[in-house]
C-alpha cells in the first residue's frame, strides 16, 4: 500500500479475527492484521510491517468497544504468550474458529463449499489443562510500573511472545488447576532460595531449566517433573533432593517426582537422562472409560474432558459397524486406537517414537485388549513395506493424527495408493490440513469437517475431516 510508513498511527474498523487470533481490517482492498483487536472494535494501531498484499499493526487505543468484549480473568493477559482471546466472550471465540476453518479450506485448500460443522465447545474454559510446561530464566520480563525491588535475574513462567530469552514470572496460570498452581508457587519459592541460578537462554549457563506439572484429571494423580542442567554435579543433585523433600512434605498428594537432566541448548522441555525421586515415574488417567499410564515424556491429550468430545467426533465420522480393521497412524501412546478398540474388529497403531510405542503396548495390556497391536515404524516408510499390509490386513478405516508439522508427502502418496474406503484426518494445524486435502483429493472426496475447541482462550483449533474413496 503506497504512501504509508512504519510507525504511522491509523484508525481501523475490525471486521473479523483471523487464524492466529489477530483482528482483521480492510482499507482500499488492503488487509491489515492487528494483535488483540476484536471484531466490532474501532481501534487506533501503529503500523509495524507492510507487505505487498497485507500489513501488520500494533494496537494502541480502542476507540469503540466490541459488544462481546469481556474482562480477561488473568492479570497477565496481553503480556503472557499462553492465551490470545481471554478478552472475548467464549461463544464468540467458538464461532470464530468455525469461520477460520471454513476460510482456510477455501483459500488454501480450494474447497469453497465443504460442510464445516459448528465447532464443538468445551465445557470447561479455565483449569482444563492436565499438563503445563514452565520455563526458568535469568532474564525476567519486567512489566511497566512493577516494583523495582523484585529480582530481575530469576523467573519461572511462560515466554513473552516473540522473545525466546524473556520469561514472564507468574504467580499462577488459570489454564491449570488450583492445586497445580499451589505446587507451582511452592516450586518457584524453593528453587529461588536454593542458591543455584536459573538457566539463561542466551548464556546457556545456569541450573534450573523447566518445570512440568501433569495431573490425572479423572484419577487425582499428580506428577512433578523438574528439568535441570547437569553442570553443577553433586551440588545440583542435592539441591533437587532438598526441593523434592520439601515438596513431598508440603504436598503429600504428589504421586511421583521426576528429575530430568539435559545440557542441550535447545529449548525443549525433555531430559536426556534422569532419575525418579519417588513414585513410579508415571501417573494414571482415565479417558473414554480406559485407563492409561502416562510417563513424564509421553504425549497424551492435554485436555482430558475435551479429548472425549474429540474421540466422539472421530467415532461418529468413522461410521464403525464393528467388523472394521482400523489403522491408527501417528498413534503416539495409542489413546485413539485404544479408546475405539471396542467399536472395531482390529486396531493397528503405527508410531515412530520407541517410548510411545512401549507406552501404547502397556496401555493396551492394562485394559486387557486383545485386538490392538502397535508397530514401531517411521510413517514415511511404514506403508511402503511390501509385507506391512499383507501381514496387518488391509484397513477399512484409517485415522491419521500427525504432529503440528503435518504429514510427510510420502505418507500422503502411500495413503492414496493404499486406498482405504474411509480416511479420518485429525489435525491441530488447519492450514496443513487444507494443503493435504488438496493432495488427497486425487482419490478421495472431502465429506465433512468437524472443528473441536480443545484449548479455549487460545488460537489453537483441532479439526476432524472425513474423506471417502471415490
Question: In summary, what is this structure?
Answer:
This protein has 10 helices and 23 strands. The chain has 470 residues and is an alpha/beta fold. Strands 7-22-23-21-20-17-18-19 form an 8-stranded mixed sheet, sandwiched between helices. It has a 7-stranded mixed sheet with strand order 10-9-8-11-12-13-14, with helices on one face. Strands 1-5-6-4-3-2 form a 6-stranded mixed sheet, with no helix packed on it.
Quick one: how many beta strands?
23
CATH topology of the largest domain: Rossmann fold
Count the helices. How many?
10
Distance between the termini: 45 Å
CATH class of the largest domain: Alpha Beta
Compute the average pLDDT.
93
Q: Compute the gyration radius: what is it?
A: 24 Å
Number of domains: 3
Question: Which architecture name of the largest domain does CATH use?
Answer: 3-Layer(aba) Sandwich
Q: Which stretches of 5+ consecutive residues score pLDDT under 50?
A: none
Largest sheet: 8 strands, mixed
Query: Major sheet: order of its strands?
Result: 7-22-23-21-20-17-18-19
Structural class: alpha/beta
> Helical amount among residues, as a percent range?
25-40%
CATH superfamily of the largest domain: Vaccinia Virus protein VP39
Amino acid at each position: 500500500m503506497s504512501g504509508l510508513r512504519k510507525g504511522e498511527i491509523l484508525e481501523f474498523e475490525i471486521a473479523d479475527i483471523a487464524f492466529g487470533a489477530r483482528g482483521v481490517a480492510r482499507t482500499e482492498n488492503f488487509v491489515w492484521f492487528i494483535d488483540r483487536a476484536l471484531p466490532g472494535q474501532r481501534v487506533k494501531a501503529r503500523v509495524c510491517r507492510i507487505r505487498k498484499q497485507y500489513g501488520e499493526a500494533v494496537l494502541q487505543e480502542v476507540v469503540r468497544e466490541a459488544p462481546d468484549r469481556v474482562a480477561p480473568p488473568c492479570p497477565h493477559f496481553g503480556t503472557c504468550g499462553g492465551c490470545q482471546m481471554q478478552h472475548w466472550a467464549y461463544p464468540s471465540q467458538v464461532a470464530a474458529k468455525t469461520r477460520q476453518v471454513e476460510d482456510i479450506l477455501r483459500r488454501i485448500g480450494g474447497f469453497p463449499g465443504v460442510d464445516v460443522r459448528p465447532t464443538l465447545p468445551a465445557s470447561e474454559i479455565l483449569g482444563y489443562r492436565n499438563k503445563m510446561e514452565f520455563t526458568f530464566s535469568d532474564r525476567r520480563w519486567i512489566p511497566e510500573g512493577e516494583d523495582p525491588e523484585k529480582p530481575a535475574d530469576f523467573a519461572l513462567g511462560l515466554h513473552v511472545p516473540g522473545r525466546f530469552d524473556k520469561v514472564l514470572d507468574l504467580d499462577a496460570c488459570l489454564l491449570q488447576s488450583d492445586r497445580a498452581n499451589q505446587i507451582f508457587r511452592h516450586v518457584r519459592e524453593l528453587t529461588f532460595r536454593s542458591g543455584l541460578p536459573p538457566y539463561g537462554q542466551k548464556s546457556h549457563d545456569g541450573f534450573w531449566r523447566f518445570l512440568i506439572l501433569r495431573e490425572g484429571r479423572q484419577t487425582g494423580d499428580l506428577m512433578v517433573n523438574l528439568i535441570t542442567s547437569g553442570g553443577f554435579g553433586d551440588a545440583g543433585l542435592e539441591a533437587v533432593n532438598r526441593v523434592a523433600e520439601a515438596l513431598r512434605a508440603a504436598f503429600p498428594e504428589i504421586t511421583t517426582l521426576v528429575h530430568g537432566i539435559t545440557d542441550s541448548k535447545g529449548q525443549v522441555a525433555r531430559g536426556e537422562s534422569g532419575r525418579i525421586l519417588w513414585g513410579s515415574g508415571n501417573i494414571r488417567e482415565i479417558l473414554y472409560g480406559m485407563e492409561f499410564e502416562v510417563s513424564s515424556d509421553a504425549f497424551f491429550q492435554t485436555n482430558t474432558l475435551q479429548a472425549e468430545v474429540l474421540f466422539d467426533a472421530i467415532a461418529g465420522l468413522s461410521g464403525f459397524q464393528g467388523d472394521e480393521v482400523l489403522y491408527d497412524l501417528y498413534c503416539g501412546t495409542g489413546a485413539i486406537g485404544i479408546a475405539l478398540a471396542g467399536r472395531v474388529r482390529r486396531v493397528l497403531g503405527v508410531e515412530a517414537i520407541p517410548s510411545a510405542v512401549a507406552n501404547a503396548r502397556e496401555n493396551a495390556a492394562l485394559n486387557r485388549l486383545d485386538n490392538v497391536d502397535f508397530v514401531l515404524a517411521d510413517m514415511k516408510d511404514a506403508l511402503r513395506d511390501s509385507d506391512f499390509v499383507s501381514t496387518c490386513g488391509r484397513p477399512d478405516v484409517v485415522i491419521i493424527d500427525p504432529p503440528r508439522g503435518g504429514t510427510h508427502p510420502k505418507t500422503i502418496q502411500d495413503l492414496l495408493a493404499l486406498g482405504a474406503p474411509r480416511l479420518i484426518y485429525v489435525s491441530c494445524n488447519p492450514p496443513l490440513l487444507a494443503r493435504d486435502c488438496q493432495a488427497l483429493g486425487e482419490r478421495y472426496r472431502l465429506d465433512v469437517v468437524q472443528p473441536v475447541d480443545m484449548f479455549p482462550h487460545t488460537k489453537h483449533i483441532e479439526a476432524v475431516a472425513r474423506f471417502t474413496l471415490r
